[in-house]
Amino acid sequence: MDGKMRSLIEKLETRHSLSLAEYAYLIDRRTDETAALLAEKACMVRQQIYGRDVYVRGLIEISNICKNDCYYCGIRRSNRSCERYRLSEEEILECCAQGYALGFRTFVLQGGEDAYFSDETVCRLIGQIKEAHPDCAVTLSLGERSRESYQRMFDVGADRYLLRHETADKAHYERLHPPQMSFDNRMRCLRDLREIGYQVGCGFMVGSPYQTVQTLAEDLKFIEEFRPDMCGIGPFVPHKATSFAKEPAGTVELTCYLLSVIRLICPNVLLPSTTALGTIDPQGRERGILVGANVVMPNLSPVSVRKKYELYDNKICTGDESAQCRHCLEQRMESIGYHVVTDRGDVSGWKNSR
Ligand code: 5AD
Ligand code: FES
After folding, report:
1. Which sequence spans correspond to the domains of the chain?
2. Is the torsion defined by CA of 133, 139, 145, 151 positive or negative?
3. Nearest alpha-carbon partner for 261 in 96, 269, 276
4. Which tens digit of pLDDT belongs to each residue from 125-141?
5. Torsion angle of alpha carbons 236, 237, 239, 240, nearest 10°?
6. Ligand 2 binding pocket includes 317 (Cβ within 6 Å)
7. Mean of the per-residue pLDDT values of the chain
């Protein structure tokens, strides 16, 4: 590795900040050697804050009905071959009860932008979950909504919100989404969520169509400046019924590299080793943890609907054998010397002001 690369990595480690051009260099000139050095540093930093603990979140996919038509996504509106479903309130509460018994203390309600889940419905749901499981955190991942909506859901107890920014480059954003969707509104949502008081997660796909070293550098700069509490990154994986069916998938190598870089930019960040990473490599989630991630999000949705929440092809954990992802992941983490913990798993340093 050249002297410049070595000094950039040192600077990242000590100042948690690089210029756009420096981020671009870090990505463009990467080698196995730089990847190994970054992973080592990322694991050291994570070790100091979180030890060998891995947090689990129970993911409940509440609806695959979506008004949007993102070009990359398998549940996009125009995909006629997608069999649509929506879980009832009872089914969602039942998933939480089962999840609680399995040791989950965070429930992530994720879904397409489905108008059925009005503020009233979501607020009632949050109230019921909090009443049944007061020691649990509720994370929402329901897309773009108004500030008032985010505020109402926060006021009844929602703790965290995941909304990937998808790309920090406006022109790139416009090549991944139809004209009805706006980069500025996405960013507005993230700012609102932050101001309201949520623990906020952003993120992007690695290897999405038209992504370049430059757009990735912008993603890293955005993460540096926004300082998210959580950051979801996983490889882009093509879905057969989308415009990007023939595009190549992102790689494990670049995803892992960026996980290490993000850990060094935001030492405290809650960083999942994603299902998409586990989909392109059978050991993908273990590899993500070994380079700096500290969260896994097993599926808690009823097995009967899992196959239908197919954002991309060949998604794992959708068959009968995966009914208890929690145990499967626990064994996977133990096999690499990490421990799944039963804990709300708030971001380090978070003071609950409720
Ligand atoms: N490949 C990988 N990730 C995808 N997502 C949507 N479609 C795909 C795909 N084809 C991600 C998006 C979204 C999150 C819920 O899933 O980043 O924000
Ligand atoms: Fe889902 Fe292993 S984590 S089956």
Report:
1. 3-341
2. positive
3. 269
4. 999 999 999 999 999 99
5. 130
6. yes
7. 96
Q: What is the pLDDT of residue 354?
A: 61
pLDDT-based confidence at residue 114 (cuts at 50, 70, 90): very high
- Which residue out of 275, 316, 320, 340 has the highest number of ligand 2 atoms within 8 Å of its CB and is therefore the one to mutate? 316
Which ligand is the nearest neighbour of the Cα of 335?
A: 2
Given the CA of residue 311, which atom of ligand 1 is nearest to it?
A: 7
Query: Is any atom of ligand 1 closer than 6 Å to the C-beta of 104?
Result: no
3-state helix, strand, coil in the chain (%, to 5): 45, 15, 40
How far is Cα 244 from Cα 289, in angstroms, rounded to an integer? 29
Distance, in Å, from the CA atom of 293 to the CA atom of 285, rounded to the nearest integer, reads: 9
pLDDT band at 320 (very low <50, low <70, confident <90, very high): confident
pLDDT over threshold 70, residue 341: yes
Q: Can you give the length of the chain in residues? A: 354
Quick one: pLDDT at residue 349? 79
Q: How many CA atoms lie within 13 A of 222 on its CB side?
A: 21
Which atom of ligand 2 is found nearest the CA of 299?
Answer: 1
230, pLDDT greater than 70: yes
| CATH class of the 3-341 domain in this structure | alpha beta
